[in-house]
C-alpha cells in the first residue's frame, strides 16, 4: 500500500515542490490549501482548511485515505513588523497559523494511528540561528514552532513518531522584495550558493531515510548565519557600493 503524506501549503511555492517530489517518489499526497479555488499538483488529494481555525486539522486528516505516515507543517503566515510597529492582532494571527495549526495537526497525526516509522517535519527558518529585529511576529512564531519540534519529539518518541525541523534560508522571492534584491541576496552566504526548494527536498529525503533521527533541526543556509546580518536580507543595501 502507498504511504500517505500531508503537506500543508501544498499548492504553491516550497510546499508544492515537496508535494510534487513526494508524488514522484510514490507517496499518496494530501496537499492542503486555504481556498476552494486553490490548485494542487496533479495526482494530489486536495484538502481545504483555514490554518487559523481551531478545527483546521479535521478536514485535512479526513482527506487521508489511510493513516498518514508523514506530516510536513509547511503552511505559514509571513508579514512584516518589528518591535516599534508591534501589533497584537498580527502577532496572534502568526501564532494561530504558524504554531497553533502545527500543534493541532501534530496531535491529530499522532491520534490517527498507523504502523511503522512515522515522521513529522516542521519547516522553520534559518534566521532562527542568527536572529534580526525584522519580521518580529513571524520570527517569534517560528521560534515557538522550533520549541514544539523539540517538545513533541520527546512526547511522541514512545509511539514511534519522529519529529524534526528543516530551517532554510531565503529560497524564493518574498512579498515586498524586489527582484534585484533577491538576486543579490540569494547567494549571500560564505558558500556563495543560493538555497532552493530542492535543497529542502534533499533534507526531507534524509529525514525520511534516517529512522533514528528525531528532535533535530537541519539548517540549510550556506553558512549565512556566520555573517551575523543586522537586518533581514530584503532590507539590506546590497548594491555594488553597499555592504551588508
Describe the overall structure.
This is SDR family oxidoreductase. Keywords: Oxidoreductase. Belongs to the short-chain dehydrogenases/reductases (SDR) family. This protein is of the alpha/beta class. Helices cover 34% and strands 15% of the residues. The chain has helices at 13-24, 57-62, 88-111, 136-156, 179-185, 197-209, and strands spanning 4-7, 28-33, 45-48, 70-73, 118-123, 161-168, 217-220. Strands 3-2-1-4-5-6-7 form a seven-stranded parallel beta sheet, with helices on both faces. Helix 1 crosses helix 6 and helix 3 (88-111) runs parallel beside helix 4 (136-156). It is globular and about 55 Å long. It starts with a strand and ends in a 24-residue tail after the last strand. The mean pLDDT is 95.
Feature tags:
15% strand; 244 residues
Order of helices and strands: EHEEHEHEHEHHE
Note the gap between the termini.
Answer: 51 Å
Alpha-carbon Rg, integer? 18 Å
Structural class: alpha/beta
Helical fraction equals 25-40%
Write down how many β-strands occur, each being a DSSP E stretch of 2 or more residues. Answer: 7
Average of per-residue pLDDT values: 95
Low-confidence blocks of residues: none
Global shape: globular
Biggest sheet: strands, sense, closure?
7 strands, parallel
State the helix count: 6
Strand order of the largest sheet: 3-2-1-4-5-6-7
**What fraction strand?**
5-15%
Query: What multimeric state do the chains show?
Result: single chain
Could you provide a short overview of the structure?
With 244 residues, the protein is an alpha/beta fold. The chain is 34% helix and 15% strand.
Amino acid at each position: 500500500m502507498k504511504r500517505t503524506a500531508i503537506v500543508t501549503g501544498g499548492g504553491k511555492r516550497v510546499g508544492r515542490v515537496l508535494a510534487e517530489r513526494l508524488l514522484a517518489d510514490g507517496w499518496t499526497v494530501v496537499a492542503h490549501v486555504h481556498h476552494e479555488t486553490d490548485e494542487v499538483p496533479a495526482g494530489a488529494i486536495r484538502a481545504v482548511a483555514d490554518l487559523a481555525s481551531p478545527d483546521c486539522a479535521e478536514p485535512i486528516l479526513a482527506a487521508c485515505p489511510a493513516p498518514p505516515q508523514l506530516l510536513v507543517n509547511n503552511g505559514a503566515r509571513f508579514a512584516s513588523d518589528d518591535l516599534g510597529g508591534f501589533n497584537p492582532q498580527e502577532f496572534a494571527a502568526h501564532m494561530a497559523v504558524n504554531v497553533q495549526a502545527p500543534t493541532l495537526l501534530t496531535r491529530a497525526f499522532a491520534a490517527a494511528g498507523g504502523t511503522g516509522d512515522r515522521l513529522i517535519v516542521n519547516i522553520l527558518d534559518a534566521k532562527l540561528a542568527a536572529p534580526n529585529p525584522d519580521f518580529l511576529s513571524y520570527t517569534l512564531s517560528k521560534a515557538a514552532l522550533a520549541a514544539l519540534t523539540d517538545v513533541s519529539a520527546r512526547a511522541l518518541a514512545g509511539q514511534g513518531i519522529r519529529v524534526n525541523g528543516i530551517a532554510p534560508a531565503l529560497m524564493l522571492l518574498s512579498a515586498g522584495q524586489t527582484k534585484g534584491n533577491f538576486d543579490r541576496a540569494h547567494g549571500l552566504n560564505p558558500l556563495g550558493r543560493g538555497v532552493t526548494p530542492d535543497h529542502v527536498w534533499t533534507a526531507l529525503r534524509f529525514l525520511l531515510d534516517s529512522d533514528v533521527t528525531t528532535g533535530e533541526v537541519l539548517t540549510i543556509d550556506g553558512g549565512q548565519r556566520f555573517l551575523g546580518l543586522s537586518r533581514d536580507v530584503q532590507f539590506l543595501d546590497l548594491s555594488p557600493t553597499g555592504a551588508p
